[in-house]
Amino acid sequence: MSDDTPTRLTYREACKQAIRDALNRDPRCLVMGEDVGLYGGCYAVTKGLLEEFGPERIRDMPLAEGVIAGSAIGAAIAGLRPIAEIMTCNFSLLALDQIINNAATIPHMSGGQFAVPLVVRLATGGGRQLAAQHSHSFEGWYAHIPGIRILAPGTVEDARYMLAAALDDPNPVLIFEHVVLYNDEGDLDPEVVSVDIDSARVRRPGKDVTIVTYGGSLPKALAAADELVGLGIEAEVIDLRVLRPVDTATIYASVARTRRCVIVDEGWRSGSLSAEIAARIAEDLFFELDAPIRRVCSREVPVPYAAHMEEAALPRTADIVAAASGLARPQ
Amino acid sequence: MSDFTMPSLGADMESGKLVEWMVKPGDTVHQGDTVAVVETQKGAIEVEIFEDGTVSELVAKEGETVPVGGVLAHVRTAGDKTPAAAPATAAPAPVEASPAPASPAPPAPRPAPAAFARTGRVKVSPAARRLAAEIGIDPEGLIGTGVDGSVSLADVELARSRGTKAAPAPSARRTGFDPAEMRKAIAAAMARSKREIPHYYLASTIDMEPALAWLAAYNEGRPPTERMLAAVLTLKATALALREHGQFNGFWQDGQFQPGKGIHVGWAIALRGGGLVSPAIHDADGLSLPELMDVLRDLVARARSGRLRGSEIMDPTMTVTSLGEQGADSVMGVIYPPQVAILGFGRIVERPWVVDGQVVPRRLTQLSLAADHRASDGHAGGRLLSTIEQLLLEPEKL
Could you tell me which SUPFAM superfamilies the record lists for this protein (chain A) (predicted)? Predict the structure, then answer.
């Protein structure tokens, strides 16, 4: 892009451009998944790519996540650069054995003889009334596993550029795309043509309280920060971007300044990524804290179907405002 | 609605500095609850409230100096119509294993789980505790405005800024007292006493042998924590004697004697590092000897750690000073105004004594009385001493 005015596009379109770009740049690259070809992808991310690149490179797969992951792992080991799509992370549990016992371990167990340059894209999260079997957030589980890198693009820019960095990584990378983000629009800065997949980003600076979040909760956290201004509270919003390995340095630098931290995680509280981050802050930053760590997570129920109940079960902007103001202005 | 005011914690007290609130608006208080800490020349005093109700507003701010009688807080009492404000921390229990409620309202901050809601411990944030240590402030003496009432960095910063303005020593310390200030208070009270009160003095030598023999028998076989001191016997004898001789139990005020309401014996306690306080043992005549021993132990410990209550400072109707084993043989006391008498027990000494025509070794004490001649005469004083002596000769009846 030579035009220096920002390009406005949807998160979905950014994902598609990233895939098209990868397919154009590297002939070893291919897309494989359920309904990615003729149907154009469950969330329409790959719509039009079959016509553009043909069935060799846009491959419809059987409804068998273990097969998708397993064959993509084999292709990666054999030298290709597969982009596997698993329709939602809820179904990825069927591919868990392949991802953990093969993708994450083979590079280690082979003493580095076999790399697994695999990228798996998965939709995650709730908020679209798809009921419990399509609405959960399992990225926190995957972030538990050594040997894989976990990404959670929360902005159009990351949706556009994280894929290329992931493909450049010789090890398996899982990219969790939140389902409510696909329709969100954002600007692409023409100056930016790549992003790292190592660091967290401060999406909004502030001095009173740090809100740590990622993915689909990022817009909620930013909206909460807007509301907090009205209460005289300047919240700093950190977008984790990379869930494994977590960039604790950025978190620590922020919390050491604000001394207060709210973690927003659409996963369930128990045993969640938010629990890990809270524990690390408590371990490493205890003496900097001026208030307890607070978390805003999903209610510990299977995500309900009914709209009002789903809304109440997931983290809400109002919940984040309440938690942050409770720390920054307790009285 | 009623006002909670700055109490008079001494005859010469004109104002006091509110060091700490121990309640906040919305708190329920009961008669006798300690609600604030006030710094006086006698050190930091925990002040009680004397009615039941709900704190509706804290008028005085921590660190503020308020004249005696000045309003510290408004308290809503049982008779008031206005409903009590809902406590800010009230919140529904977090929903766990059931579907979430549909209400779009944001949930109130989660209350601390009951198991962790320990009372009596001052919560200090880690960062606040570290800063306080660095600048030499006791963070547990500060008002917490942080989460769950915890002392936060801002509270320590505030204390630091006030401390540097007010005095070189951190003003936020609540324990301990300033010996120089206490010396001033003693000087003022004693000078007033000698200036205004026409003292007369009487003394008797009392045979302590029966009391001490009874005490030895009582203490024998008991663990140290249950043993009693001779001071308890003299204290109880004094309190019982004051029932009969009421003109020594009370105050000289407005040109006349005002009898005390109850017998609240002020017990003189020397403080380490100098100084003296005489907190009240309330209704001492009604307490059993073991109860008195417990009260005395508690009172001495709290006096020395600077944690006396306001009522203990305000209420004594008469003072007893006991010189103890290391003390002098006798004392001619100076009355603490507006009281009208002070009794002194000298060191217990073994001396030759005539009993039934025989010179025998006996353990004796000098009992002395300094009394206000405006309120009583020497004859009455002599009868008071005689009554105490008779009571001590029959210790089993105390």
Answer: Thiamin diphosphate-binding fold (THDP-binding) (SSF52518), TK C-terminal domain-like (SSF52922)
